[in-house]
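Tokens for Leucine-rich repeat-containing protein 14B. Go.
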Amino acid sequence: RKTMKSLRFISAEAFVSNAEFARRSLGAVAHDLFPLLFKASYLLEQGEVIHDLVENWPLFDFNMGKLLGATLDYQEDLSHRTCSVCLESCLTGLRDYVLNQSSPYMKKLKVVDLTGIKDVEVQFCKCKKTMGRWARTQLLSKLCSELLVYLQQAQCNPGTFEISINVLIDLFVTERNYELVVQALLKKCSCPLKICCVAFRSDNLTLQKFFYIIKLTDPSLLRKLEIVHNVHLEMEHLEMLFSSIHFPELMSLTLPARTFNVRRFTATDEQMLSNIGEKMGEMTQLTELSMSFSILTGRIQKLLSPLKTPLKMLDVSNCSLNHADMAYLANSFHANHLEALDLSGHDIPELYPSTFFKLLSHCSSVLRSLTLEDCNIQDTHVNMLILGLSPCQKLQEFKFIGNPLSSQALKHLFTFLCELPMLKNVEFPVPRDCYPVGITYPIDDASLCRFDHQKYERVAEELNLILLQANREDVKASTPLFGSYDAAVQETNNELGAYLIKSFKETLEKFTTSFNKMS
């Protein structure tokens, strides 16, 4: 469906479509037209025009989310287009804004906000080349370092050194771009472009490097902290982190797998867990918490009860929760505020069916996303599930991959899902009857793809037909066998793959050495 454009926007497109003419004429353009021309240039991927617009930006702020979002002139939101041509032109234009001494406009720019850019799976830009969060981190750090070197070597206008622009960005740091980012952060005070880290994601970093760079980011500004995958953070390191650094603005926290393991807890560990809970309680803005693949049996209350602000997002997938944990969640003050909940990897029907449905009823008025993957939900549980989901009228996303449901049960469930007015995304399992008889759940990776693909395609068509007949073409239904799309993982999978191979090789070498010694 084409989005309507105002005559102003159509005129702006016509103006920027001739790049040479547009660049030559910018000096005569009114200040308040720059945002309009920027969005038109971004839509048409006019890199040179984008560069010059930013280089001569006449306003106090430059907010990518607002500039590319829905406007009266053009309702379509372009903030999910991470077009490499457009973003590189944008950032180099920002560098040249500092260096350009002949611009006809007085330099007013104080704040650049790059945090509104959204990384998504499907790109609509013509060049089909994206610039993800990691690459944006890399390029901005590189430009800041180069800018500082140039200013130190060249004869610049004294006014250039008085320019001070806060650049708000979501940083993504791995081993590969670590040194470059560290150098940019260390020289922040001297550089006219000052990196202000609002969200920080680290992967494939040693603990020593992580602790060093997190202090450089100015943690007092951080709203989101993601420590994932190959950062080997355990409970004692987390306590050290929270004891040495304060995060007053932190709203969202993601911890790596195996941060907690209560099976090997000592009295000291219990105290450590209490300390972590208390420190999280001091983070009065914290509303999103993800700690999947930790073992937290019987300790959820100890960790979450000190929180003074109710959680809106909770991911405790594969955390070995017991009945006491679920009872706490169902009766806690968090329950009425949960907009996103992930309880994957727990045998809900067997362990705590009534407590789970109590939790679901408490959060039903606000719940937007529910993930119940590998939860042993079978055909006999579908009617109860429908009953529990019926009040969830704001549900936008429901993921239940890995459950042993038959084709018939899925059709029954889909017929109900059509009635949820806000639903947009469903991730459903390969039907049990598409797998060989005797398949056991959860299905191991080796057997995951060994199903009747033709039969699956027929069932998927029937499920989509149910949506179509109910006029719910707006609902996307899919079966991502190896998990949902993750833009950050997708962007750095080569580096992570190399790291895993290296780790495997080192482990093999240690094993061989030990074996030879024994021999």
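The chain is about 45% helix and 10% strand.
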